Amino acid sequence: MTFFHFGNCIALAYGPYFLTYKYSGMPEYGAFWKCAQVGGMYMLTQLCKMLLLATFFPTSDGPPEMASLATELVKTTVDFGDVMGLSLVMGRVQGAGHIKVLITGLGWAAADLLLTRALPLWVGARGLEFDWKYIQISLDANISLVQHLNMALLVWLWWRNDLAAAVRPIVAVLLAVCVYRPLLPQILAILVGTWPTGFPLLAVSATPTLCTALIASHIFITHTASVRS
User: Which of 16, 66, 113, 185 could form a disulfide with 62 if both were Cys (CB 3.0 to 4.6 A apart)?
Assistant: First the structure.
């Protein structure tokens, strides 16, 4: 039972990443090592963010729901470092627009999965008792994949010189929503009075991610069609 639970969590967490790589056309471009290089840039970016947070924003001992929303807002702003890192990486990746987005987004998401979720799954999912927490971690990894691909797409759109001027503010707003998404549970806790946990927390994370991804995809399709015509 323990082995099947662990295998199920691993398949649920890593399967979408493998399928995205295999069926998106990236193997034809020899994109594996490019994704690995993007992952290295992700690690460097996270190191810089941790140093910045440790220097200017020391952690508090209180529960997250008791932390000041203004303080968390300032801390979350540091996540714009991911946008800067994605911009640097995308400028170095060679290929068509959609391939650059896929390589950058998938490499970034895979590195995030390896560093933040691989160890909890390896240690916890092999326990003697079944726990829904590890299924939720695996599902959250899928949400993270969509989130990082969406951010890569928005960064690519932002740096397009031929992007319509009326669309650029929308792209900026969508990027801000992606960056400040971790604040939504705390905002919901302030409004409702209860900190969301379990599957409601997944819903809080997935809803804005899917909405921004749909809007960004529509902008990308419209922009691509207008460029071709």
Answer: 66
Q: Specify the pTM.
A: 0.88
Cα dihedral 120→126→131→133 (10° resolution): 20
Residue 166 to residues 71, 159, 177, Cα–Cα distance (Å): 33, 14, 18
Q: Which two tokens mark 178?
A: 């992606």
pLDDT tens track for 155-214 = 999 988 888 888 999 999 999 999 998 888 777 777 776 766 777 888 888 999 999 999
Element (H, E) at 39: helix 32-56
DSSP 92-107: H--S-HHHHHHHHHHH
**Exposure b/e, 70-90, CB count within 10 A at least 16 = b:** eebeebeebbebbbebbeebb
Tell me the C-alpha distance between 117 and 178, whole Å. 20
Distance between CA atoms of residues 83 and 32, nearest Å: 22
Give the H/E segment covering residue 27.
none
